[in-house]
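Dear Dr. H.,

I hope your travels went smoothly. While you were away I took the liberty of generating a structure for the chain from your last submission, since the lab meeting agenda had it listed for discussion. I wanted you to have the full record in hand beforehand rather than looking at slides cold. The sequence, exactly as received, is reproduced here:
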Amino acid sequence: MIQEKKNIDAPALSYNKASIIEIVDLHKTFGKNEVLKGVNLVVNKGENLVILGKSGSGKSITIKCLVGLVVADKGEIKVFDTDITKLDNNQLNEIRVRIGFLFQNAALYDSMSVRENLGFTLKRHVTDLSPEELEAEILAVLESVGLADAIDKMPSELSGGMRKRIGLARTLILKPEIVLYDEPTTGLDTITSREISELILDIQKKNKTSSIIITHDMACAKHTADRLIILKDGVIHAEGSYEELEKSDDEWVRSFFI
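The corresponding predicted structure, in token form, is as follows:
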């Protein structure tokens, strides 16, 4: 049993065999800025966990530590029951290939077509595919995000929402067990944001993925979250369902839902 910072909305966390991610006492400092001061969280298999917090609260740093893009100063980070803080780079890469990461800007290669973007990602990790098999995998994942007709387009020809979908397709083509979403609806209009939120749920259901979703978009949070946590001052300040936190006795927590 791991005791959280005392707060009416932040009960003690209980880890169990259903968990796929466990973070214990995570600390990270940049210079004199202590961003994470002992974060404890768990993600259960098949769960969408949404992380909320003001800008600079450490939301993105937390998930970057989770895949080793940022090295934690202290703490245990268990993914698939393996503490990644104790792995060398080759071992870490074996874990990373099972985790999809959707960046804010979709991070597509601008000089490559959609087909080439997806094919490049797949060929880096699966080397024995025939050209026909590669094409079939690309088409299948594009169909799953509703953009099969964009296969020959360049990133510059895509709208913001389409770029997000293609970025997600590139993440899904490796069939990850965990997907990390960093502001998946930022910069999108209301209708497109709703479509991305629906897609996140479709992926959870069809692929049985477990996900962490970093967002400021409360509509996205409400639509996609099985559970939410809120970071404040480098620790988890509150945890619960959308409905529970919306009715919190803590005025600061309620401010997110106004």
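Two observations you may find useful: The chain has a mean pLDDT of 90. Residues 45-59+89-257 form a domain with the Rossmann fold fold (CATH 3.40.50.300).

With kind regards,
E. W.
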